[in-house]
Write a structure and sequence with these properties.
Blueprint lengths: L7 E5 L6 H16 L3 E4 L5 H11 L4 E5 L13 E4 L6 H8 L2 E4 L4 H13 L3 E3 L10 E2 L3 H12 L2
């Protein structure tokens, strides 16, 4: 990351989730924005929408990398919607765009994003996401997890 540039922090997780996970994701988004980061996500619902909502509550910038062709499919909290038309392959674009990643619980799309992080040596922290490697730092507190992701993004 270039000096004096905002870190891009991706938030990955389930497209559909319960209130507890939405609250956790919203806190992640708020913490990213409070610390000067740009939130990158898949731009749709669930964890993605909640994290973007949190970032917007703190006047943060949000980027949604969408699977389809229509930027209007993005959730209402996305500032910059990027339609890719490449479906789930957009997961790689999300990871390549980010300086670091915060992974929350999700299904196979989240698993693929985490695997891309490991394959590409992309810094990643987990908040109760898939336990697929001892190389992934795991946290329970969203503020601590985001601060660590921001720290890793700067390296």
């Amino acid at each position: 990351m270039a000096k004096n540039q905002q870190p891009f922090i991706a938030v990955v997780g389930a497209g559909k989730c319960n209130k507890r996970m939405k609250d956790l994701a919203e806190q992640v988004g708020m913490t990213i924005a409070e610390n000067g980061g740009v939130l990158v996500c898949g731009g749709l619902g669930g964890i993605m929408e909640a994290a973007a909502k949190g970032a917007k509550r703190k006047q943060g910038l949000t980027v949604g990398i969408l699977p389809g062709n229509n930027r209007h499919d993005a959730n209402e909290f996305i500032d910059v919607a990027i339609p890719t038309g490449i479906g789930e392959a957009r997961n790689l674009v999300i990871i390549k765009t980010a300086d670091a990643v915060v992974a929350l619980p999700g299904k196979y799309g989240t698993l693929s994003e985490m695997a891309f992080c490991l394959k590409l040596n992309k810094p990643m922290v987990s908040l109760s996401a898939w336990n697929i490697s001892d190389d992934i730092e795991r946290y329970e507190d969203p503020t601590i997890a985001v601060r660590r992701a921001l720290e890793l993004a700067g390296k």
